[in-house]
Amino acid sequence: MTARDISLTVNGEIRRANVMPRMTLVDLLRDVLGLTGTHIGCEHGVCGACSILLDGVPVRSCLIFAVQADGHEVTTVEGLADGDGEIGDLQDAFWECHAMQCGYCTPGMLIAGHALLAENPAPDTGEIREAISGNLCRCTGYTQIVEAIALCAARRREGEG
Amino acid sequence: MKAAEFDYIRADSVAAACAALAAAGPGEERKIIAGGQTLVPLMAMRLARPALLVDIDGIPGLDGIEARDSYVAIGAMTRQRAAELSPAVRDAVPLLARALRFVGHVQTRNRGTVGGSLVHGDPSAEIPLAAVALDAELEAEATGGKRTYAAASFFEGPMVTAIAPDECLVEARFPVWNGGRIGAGFQEVASRRGDFAIVAAAAQVALDGGGTCTRIAAALGGVAPGPVRIAALEDALAGTRLEDGAIDAALASVGGAIEPDDDLHATAAYRGRVAEVLLGRAIREARDEARA
Description:
CATH superfamily of the largest domain in chain A: Beta-grasp domain
Largest sheet of chain A: 5 strands, mixed
Oligomer: heterodimer
Radius of gyration of chain B: 19 Å
Shape of chain A: globular
Number of domains of chain A: 2
Number of strands of chain B: 14
Shape of chain B: globular
CATH topology of the largest domain in chain B: Uridine Diphospho-n-acetylenolpyruvylglucosamine Reductase, domain 3
Distance between the termini of chain A: 57 Å
Mean pLDDT of chain A: 95
Distance between the termini of chain B: 49 Å
């Protein structure tokens, strides 16, 4: 089994690593690159905790080997905030709506919500629920998560108006 | 939940991928990885332990959707999400467009491919069901040449398809129904939104100007080792106006066409009952869309 050199863009920075093919992308992000914002839940594609953006679209990073991401662009939950250390508007809405309890699903929910709002600035409740249907909240706090995404969407629309 | 060790290569052409597959030593399993949304979980659970993965992502020409006269050709590497959002698929193969919305979640459809779902052949997967319902053709390539499989005989059993270990699926061709008003219906019951279906039902119908059904395809997933067409029901409903009474009467032939099993998720009796109800709903959904 041969390790491979890979290079990918993570949150705007080019990162290089030497990885075994069996290493998943989420393990690369957390264990090699130190980006522990992305969580690992089920490790077989069911829970959505490890959601990231790959080339701009949401995917599960436990279902991608790091070698497959060679040459591609990744955004993790760390990349959703501005560089100034302040949380972004979607994260702000999660905080305000108390859209988290244990916090385990939160990075995946933020990625799912972020991706939804990028393609649909005015989602209805059904569309929000559909967008997060692949993300499990073990605390069952879905109602506040849906409210937070709707609040962020409304604020962005007001901001533009 | 970590995959066993394996080696990995990226193929830059279908020929290179096929050559890598053909070079497998005795007893050595080499597998193609496309989107990995079925294969990686199988590897994580150690249900699959290939020695080498041949990555076909990025091979030029292997993804893309092209509407031709009598069919829509979908490259094997086409992401499920791209097919779901494709106007060509929506307009010309409405049943497939409808089925795609039930495949996993948007996060897995962004990565998972049409070809990958077909070659894995999960008995309750939606894309194989649509392929069987619509008599899709599946073209595979090996070092020795190309071969075309009929969807009807491609799905041999649970997670077993006719594709050979040295073949790479390159394209799925879904027939376009020309003439009449076309409608499609897709229904499924799953434990959770986006989970594999316990039972799934697919129907596509064509109505003439007077509302008579000139063509109907009806198939079920999750109730046999692979997707099954319900031919007797199709024969009974072709030529009718698809009134509710005719549909209900024709559903009596479902029981004889399926072989549901008991498992952790549902009993065989439940599957049989749900199969009839869902297929009835799918046919009515297709009919109402065609009438509208």
